[in-house]
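in:
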């Protein structure tokens, strides 16, 4: 069963159950002149220093994609290994 959210308020927050082999498709454009966007799959509120199962951070200006996780307020090793930057500042 899939659900579509059109033009959600930002930041977009929803409760989901993360299970193995569940897929998420995110389509959109950054607001106005923003050159960076981040997706966090996390447990808890931002103010609670949540555990983040997966963070996907895109910086279009520097052509960098960074991925990471956080457990008990401690960040893991950031991964920045990509062979092709799949985003454009104009798209």
């Amino acid at each position: 069963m899939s659900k579509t959210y059109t033009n959600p308020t930002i930041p977009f927050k929803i409760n989901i159950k993360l299970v193995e082999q569940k897929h998420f498709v995110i389509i959109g454009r950054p607001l106005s002149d923003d050159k960076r966007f981040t997706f966090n799959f996390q447990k808890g509120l931002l103010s609670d220093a949540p555990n983040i199962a997966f963070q996907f951070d895109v910086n279009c200006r520097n052509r960098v994609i960074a991925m990471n996780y956080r457990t008990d307020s401690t960040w893991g090793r950031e991964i920045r290994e990509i062979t092709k930057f799949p985003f454009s500042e104009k798209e």
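note: Strands lie at 36-43, 51-59, 64-71, 74-75.
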